[in-house]
Design goal:
eight-stranded mixed sheet; 17 strands; three-stranded antiparallel sheet; alpha+beta; Chloramphenicol Acetyltransferase; about 575 residues
């Protein structure tokens, strides 16, 4: 009933779907009694399921499914009994689906976090090319993150809105000082205990060596940029050796394997204390070594790979603790990005933090450093037994195999951006989603099940929902584009219809930062396509696995560019005409 070959997520935005750029009130999330997550009726659920199948299956298969659903939904039947059980869950829980979502989508998954789960955000390359510039920028970055955290701590963070409705801000309070913990059958999440004093330090890792860095003065004020810069220089002086075991690669392994290695690691008190220090830190800063230069054509893809997995066991992958919720990456060559773990938070809150931090780095708050001595950053030591060394070697091999298998292609499309689409009163996200359907159809001769994520933060403790972007209207459009007898006016009409249908499912707002997100495909024979529409261009990241002969990231990337050219040509013909009303 249709092959699940393509997975892409419409991400790269500072705000979740439908979130307006202006915030209207300076009130904390707790000020708003948000509605509870509603339960769709059984009829609504079955109708949505059928609509998602229409463009993917044959008429015979669709009719057979309709018959099965009719039997499932008969009064007093299994469907009604299951619906009643769901309703009882709704009545007794704050949010009936969030715990299920976190468990099934994240904590029960046994695949490695690297590539398979944790997304990376590739930020604009900075204007430094040595370790001195790296440390100066990292100091400003840390100060910017602490500045944002102060808004959370003091309850002055502006409440975000979607179409006039306040959004749940709970995720912000859980991002800092949290970490995923490996388990034998499923993982868990370490959160700071409520009511206790939060941690006052971060983790800094360089040359595979971890340091505990206090980031607050004794009076509770955050360290200034100058103080942080001085402390980072002291860390560099303590981490000049490069012959250390890349302990961090253990966290990149299959969750079951890492869970077993974690049990071994934590038997030793020194290891236990050091690991817990990393897990409980506010966040992690990874000071990466420079990587080999590549051609300009491959530079953006290499940069994305560096942020996503570190480049391999002999590059910077040991400079990570993949379980950590929030990791900022700063390379000596000016590369920078963010890697985050999703069990605690989705992308939009992370992107909001990123925008704040980058703005802060451009114009940091000048604060005179107090004339008080700072304690030396604490190096976190580990005891490497032969068993742990074997675990590290196995993790290195597994990660390098995974990295070799990952096919990644990043590019910037300059034909048009969201400015033109908004001028035509079209949803940029919807136009891009329809163009992606056209690109896939041309590459593979059919459409496939496609998942695009949408936020549920309008509800208390809401997380993420999946939009089924493959629609019958999109199928009609891509077939028209393949029909030589179909003329431009009809193609344009079908394009507008497909965009209109998708627009009823969601609305997206792009990020201010010229960045792009990337992660690996969610299925072996799938793609992951991430994009960020900016005023005059769109950033893309496409990934696939080399082990699948049917998928090719570079091929799909080229198909996307051609599809956007063709869509742009249709819209250009419409744009110079008199009818520019909303479709």
């Amino acid at each position: 009933m249709g092959r699940w070959r393509l997975m892409w997520r419409a991400w790269g935005r500072t705000k979740p779907p439908g979130l307006r750029s202006a915030t209207l009130h300076c009130r904390h999330a707790s000020s708003f009694p948000l509605p509870r997550q509603p339960l769709p009726s059984l009829a609504e659920t079955t109708a949505r399921y059928l609509r998602s199948l229409e463009p993917l299956v044959s008429p015979e298969e669709l009719e057979q499914t309709q018959q099965l659903l009719a039997e499932f939904g008969v009064p007093g039947g299994e469907g009604e009994r299951l619906q009643a059980r769901l309703q009882r869950r709704v009545d007794r829980m704050e949010n009936w689906i969030t715990d299920w979502w976190v468990q099934s989508a994240y904590l029960e998954s046994r695949l490695p976090l690297a590539v398979h789960s944790s997304p990376a955000v590739v930020l604009p390359k900075q204007d430094f090319n040595d370790w001195k510039g790296q440390l100066r920028f990292a100091a400003k970055l840390i100060a910017g993150v602490l500045d944002f955290k102060a808004k959370i701590d003091h309850q002055t963070l502006l409440v975000e809105y979607s179409r006039g409705y306040p959004l749940c801000m709970e995720q912000y309070s859980r991002i800092f000082a949290s970490c995923r913990l490996p388990g034998p059958k499923h993982d868990s999440v370490l959160l700071p205990p409520p009511g206790r004093r939060p941690p006052t330090y971060i983790t800094v890792v360089r040359n595979f060596q971890f340091f505990q860095l206090e980031v607050y003065n004794s009076d509770g004020t955050p360290l200034t940029v100058d103080q942080l810069h001085w402390q980072l220089q002291r860390i560099r002086a303590q981490s000049w050796k490069t012959d250390k075991e890349p302990l961090g690669v253990l966290t990149s392994d299959h969750r079951h394997t890492w869970g077993q290695a974690y049990t071994t690691l934590m038997r030793d008190k020194l290891n236990r204390d050091s690991a817990r220090a990393i897990q409980r830190s506010l966040f992690t800063v990874c000071l990466d070594a420079p990587v080999l230069k590549v051609s300009d054509a491959l530079a953006s893809s290499r940069l994305a790979a560096q942020m996503l997995h570190g480049g391999g066991s002999y590059s910077n992958s040991g400079n990570r603790w993949f379980d950590k919720t929030l990791q900022f990456i700063v390379g000596e060559d000016g590369s920078c990005g963010v890697l985050y773990e999703q069990a605690v938070a989705e992308g939009p809150p992370i992107a909001t933090i990123i925008d704040h931090v980058l703005d802060y780095c451009k114009d940091p708050v000048p604060v005179r450093a107090p004339l008080i001595p700072l304690q030396l950053p604490k190096k976190l030591y580990f005891c490497f037994t032969p068993e742990i060394k074997r675990d590290i070697e196995h993790a290195k091999q597994n990660l390098d195999i995974l990295i070799t298998d990952l096919d990644i292609s990043c590019f910037t499309y300059c034909g048009f951006g969201k400015e033109l689409l908004k001028r035509l009163r079209l949803s940029p996200d919807s136009v891009l989603q329809v163009a992606l359907q056209l690109a896939y159809y041309r590459a593979h001769g059919e459409l496939c099940a496609t998942a695009e994520s949408a936020s549920l933060r309008r509800f208390h403790r809401g997380r993420t929902e999946t939009i089924r972007s493959t629609t019958s209207a999109a199928l009609a459009f891509v077939r028209a584009m393949a029909d030589d007898d179909c003329q431009a006016p009809e193609r344009l009409s079908l394009l507008k219809k497909a965009v209109e249908v998708h627009s009823t499912l969601t609305e997206q707002v792009a990020a201010r930062t010229d960045c792009v997100m990337c992660y690996g495909p969610l299925v072996p024979d799938g793609y992951a396509v991430c994009y960020n529409p900016l005023p005059t261009h769109v950033n893309f990241a496409v990934t696939a696995f080399n082990c699948c002969q049917e998928t090719n990231a570079e091929h799909l990337a080229g198909s996307i560019q051609k599809a956007l050219d063709d869509v742009g040509a249709l819209l250009g013909n419409w744009g110079v005409g008199s009818d520019q009303r909303q479709p």
